[in-house]
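User: Can you recover a sequence for this backbone? Please restate the input before giving your answer.

Assistant: Of course. Working from this structure:
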């Protein structure tokens, strides 16, 4: 199956084209007809899902929307950055080396994660991949991807480890605020030894990664079950002073990945995070609990 991963430039291009079309009062179908392209093609372009972007289409749309020349050149540059065929041979899209193992919709998340400056996470059942030890990741993947070869499993672990560079790099490491349920500490992945090492890793994160535990005694701060979610916030573009991407919430469940960036959806998840954080242990108390449970596993 072909993969059409969304990249940050592609999403930016699509959003700008959609806003330009709406500003001149054209429907998607009318705009597509006037540039002699299919409505589906234009829709994928506006949603940032088209991996093959024609400069002629960008020019035609800009003329249709009466876009000034300098703005058109900016959009054409975004199109060049978005097209896989014109990507520079650097490590900006390192995960494409593993694209046979990474679902296309998760490549979207990887692109967003690599561009974020702050990540807020709630995890009720497992340690998030960006802070997993290699052995913890291997134990989970061995169970979930039971038909994988040893090499494929190791490549999956390598992807997790490569993602963690974002929180340990010297320049502008990602700020991470993580809330984890006490169930994450108690549910064994692999072995007691693996769990002890993983909990110590959580207790000894660098200063830009803040971990707080929701103890069992905190009850249900939302009145029921809340699934895992990630909120990604992005730095400002120096040329515009605006974030390069709107704050985006990522929600993953079994076989489903969803992305929300409307103000209403983001506010709802932000409020949930604040309510859950109110009953969480402080950072120092959380580190103490993590080390205490690690000792139990080691005993």
């Amino acid at each position: 199956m072909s993969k059409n991963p969304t990249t940050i430039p592609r999403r930016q291009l699509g959003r700008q084209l959609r806003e330009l079309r709406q500003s001149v009062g054209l429907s998607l179908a009318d705009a597509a007809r006037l540039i002699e392209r299919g409505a589906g093609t234009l829709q994928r372009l506006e949603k940032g899902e088209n991996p093959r972007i024609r400069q002629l289409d960008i020019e035609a749309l800009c003329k249709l929307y009466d876009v000034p020349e300098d703005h058109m050149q900016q959009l054409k540059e975004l199109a060049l950055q978005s097209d896989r065929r014109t990507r520079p041979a650097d490590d900006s899209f390192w995960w494409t080396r593993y694209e046979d193992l990474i679902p296309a919709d998760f490549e979207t998340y990887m692109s967003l994660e690599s561009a974020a400056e702050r990540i807020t996470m709630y995890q009720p059942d497992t340690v998030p991949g960006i802070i997993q030890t290699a052995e913890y990741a291997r134990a989970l993947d061995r169970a979930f991807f039971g038909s994988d070869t040893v090499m494929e499993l190791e490549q999956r672990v390598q992807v997790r480890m490569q993602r963690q560079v974002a929180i340990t790099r010297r320049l502008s490491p990602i700020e991470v605020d993580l809330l984890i349920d006490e169930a994450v500490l108690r549910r064994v992945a692999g072995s007691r030894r693996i769990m002890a090492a993983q909990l110590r890793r959580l207790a000894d994160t660098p200063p830009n990664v803040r971990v707080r535990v929701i103890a069992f005694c905190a009850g249900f701060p939302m009145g029921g079950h809340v699934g895992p979610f990630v909120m990604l916030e992005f730095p400002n573009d120096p040329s515009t002073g605006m974030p390069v991407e709107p704050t985006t919430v990522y929600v993953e469940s079994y076989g489903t990945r969803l992305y929300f960036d409307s103000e209403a959806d983001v506010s709802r998840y932000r409020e949930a995070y604040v309510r859950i954080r109110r009953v969480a242990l402080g950072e120092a108390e959380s580190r103490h609990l993590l080390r205490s449970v690690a000792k139990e596993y080691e005993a």
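That completes the design. DSSP finds 13 helices and six strands in the chain.
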